[in-house]
Amino acid sequence: MSASARVRADACPGVFATHDAADGPLARVRLPGGAITAARLSALADAAEDLGDGALHLTSRGNVQLRGVTRPGLASRLATAGLLPSPSHERVRNILASPLSDVAQELASALDRALCAVPELAGLPGRFLFALDGGQGDVAGEGADVCWRDGALLLAGDDTGLRVPSEHAVDALISVARAFLRTRGTAWRVSELPDPEPLLSGVPGERTEPRAFATRPGLPIGPIGDAVVVAPVFGRLTSAQARAIAKAGNAVVTPWRSILVLGPLEAGTGLVADPDAPSLGVSACIGRPGCAKSLADVRADAARVGRAPRAHFAGCERRCGKPAHEHVDVLATEDGYLVDGAFVPVGELTETLATLAKKGQQ
C-alpha cells in the first residue's frame, strides 16, 4: 500500500459545501446503500427541476449529484424529505451495499445510523468509503476503504483474514473508521497508510488465512424477477425519468450508474433496459461546458462512438467518475484523445474503439 498522503484540503462536495463547477454549484447527495424511497426520489426530482439543471447525475459511489444549483433552498428541501438525517455527517455517509442482497441493504441502513451517532466520525475524509457485500463480490471490488464481505473484513480491497459475523459487522466497520480517524495523519484513504493492520486492533472476530476473492462488478441490465435494472445514458437521469421510477416504487441507485427499480416501470422512459445497448459500455465525466478543466465535450464525442469496449472518457487528467474495474482510458487532449496512452484523432475514435472491442471478444 502506498504511503503517500495528501496535504491539501478535503474538497469533496456535499449539500452545504458545494463545488463551484463551470455550470454552477454542484451538490452531492449521499444515498447509503443506494436505497431511495419513491417519495424521496420524487423530492430529488423536484429539487433538480426547481433549483438545478433539471437532472439527477448518478455517481460511481451510488450517490446523486445536482448540477447548476443556483437557487436557494436545497438543504431545507432535502431535510424535509429525510435525506439529511445528520447535517454534520452528510459528507461522510459514503456506503456501498450489494443491491440484490437484503442482508447488505439492511446492514447499510444500520451502519448509516451508527455512523451518524458518533460525533467524531463527522471528521472522516469525504472520500472514505464503506462497503457491505452480501457475498456476490459486486461492491467488494469498488475500492472501499473497509468492506464487510459476507463475513470477511477487507481493507482497501485486501482480505485481512478477520472473519466477523453479520451481527457484528456494523460495529467492526465503525471501529475501523474510528481507528483510521485517530491514526490517519494526513491520509485520506486506507490505501495511503504504510500499515493498515493497527486499524484492526479491538475488532472482534476469528482469524484465518487471508484469501483472494473474485469480484463481479456491475448488475445485469434488464428484468430481475419483479424488478428491473435500467441505466440513464451517461448516468444523467432527467426529472421526468426519476418521477417515472418513483411511480413504479422504491429503487436502489448502484455504483455502476444504473438503477434497480423495485416495481413495474412504464414504457417509453428513454432509460436503457437492453443489455446489448452500445452505450452501456461507455462512461464519461461531465466534460465541457460543465467543467472548466475539461479539454473537450467528452459526452458528445462518446455519444458518437458505436460498439466499444468498456471505456471511460475523461476531459482532464483528474479522470472524474472513472470506474474502479478494468476499462479503456480515453483521455482528452487539446487536439484529440489518448486511448490507453496512444494518441487518436477525434475522427478515428469510433474505428479505434471498435477494433479494441473486437479484440476483447476474441
From TrEMBL:
Transmembrane segments: none annotated. It comes from the Bacteria. Pfam families: NIR_SIR_ferr. Residues 27-70 form the Nitrite/Sulfite reductase ferredoxin-like domain. Gene3D superfamilies: 3.90.480.20. InterPro entries: NIR_SIR_4Fe-4S, NiRdtase/SiRdtase_haem-b_fer, Nit/Sulf_reduc_fer-like_dom_sf, NO2/SO3_Rdtase_4Fe4S_sf. Keywords: 4Fe-4S, Heme, Iron, Iron-sulfur, Metal-binding, Oxidoreductase. Coiled coil: none annotated. GO terms for molecular function: 4 iron, 4 sulfur cluster binding; metal ion binding; oxidoreductase activity. This is Precorrin-3B synthase. It comes from Amycolatopsis alba DSM 44262.
